[in-house]
Amino acid sequence: MKSFGLYFALAAAAGTLAAGAPGAFAQTERSSAPSAQARIYAACQVMNEAVQVQETLDRFASGLASHDVQQLQAAGIEPVSAKGWQRFFKSNPDATVADSCPVSSLFIAGDTANWSCIETSRITSDGRPVENARVIRFTFTKRNGEWMISDRR
Fold this sequence. Notes:
The protein is α+β, with helices and mostly antiparallel strands. It has one domain (3-152): Nuclear Transport Factor 2, Chain: A (Roll). It has helices at 3-19, 21-30, 36-66, 69-74, 79-91; strands at 96-100, 106-109, 112-125, 128-143, 146-152. A hairpin with a 2-residue loop joins strand 3 and strand 4 (128-143). Helix 1 runs antiparallel to helix 3 (36-66). The longest helix is centred in the middle third of the chain and has 31 residues, at 36-66. It is elongated and about 65 Å long. It starts with a helix and ends with a strand.
């Protein structure tokens, strides 16, 4: 599952926060700075949000792999974009489209997240495979407690 890589990367970041905690703990009790426990809790919250965004991206990727427009819409793709994907899949039944999204490019702020990825598509043209790669930016929005794709450009 893709989210394990994300989990370990974020766990390492949380570990970095926790690593500074023992020496800072005595100071934070006397100062207005957040306690080590509060910092670790905040890091876990960020990790949880990132895993949920990754799961949304995984649902989208599954829809791309299976050419299932309904799965794309379930991940948040708007009907207009879904129709475009439907035309693309119909015109290119052997096409593959995959997004590679480095953890380092995920940015979450409140109920919005942005993730820059590399989209690689392969189609057959005149009997030859043609591959194209380009930068894609996903925007996610949290609706009713669930992350959804609100834009992909």
